[in-house]
Amino acid sequence: QVQLQESGPGLVKPSQTLSLTCTVSGASITSSGYAWSWIRQPPGKGLEWMGVIDNDGSTYYSPSLKSRISISRDTSKNQFSLQLSSVTPEDTAVYYCAPREGTGCFTYWGQGTQVTVSS
Length: 119
Description:
Oligomer: single chain
Structural class: mainly beta
Low-confidence stretches: none
Largest sheet: 6 strands, mixed
Distance between the termini: 39 Å
Radius of gyration: 13 Å
């Protein structure tokens, strides 16, 4: 059973950088079989895949966010992190971390963390 917990500020000012961390238990982020993703859901909208960091540390980002997003990891803590720069109110969302399986499915999810962008 993989468990994930998102953490970070719930309020970010416009133009600043949003930073979140996902702490993983039950699986190693360096093991094959999973690619560690960030996904968000703005209010009243569907889920948006943001990006992923593979078990080898390779990263892939949504084209719509590529200029602003960075995903990194701390293998010693079994954590991976999201940074989203130059945020606007449109970045207000519930942010989730989840491992993508080789089948493309997302079986395990964090509980999600609300991030509001507002001055």
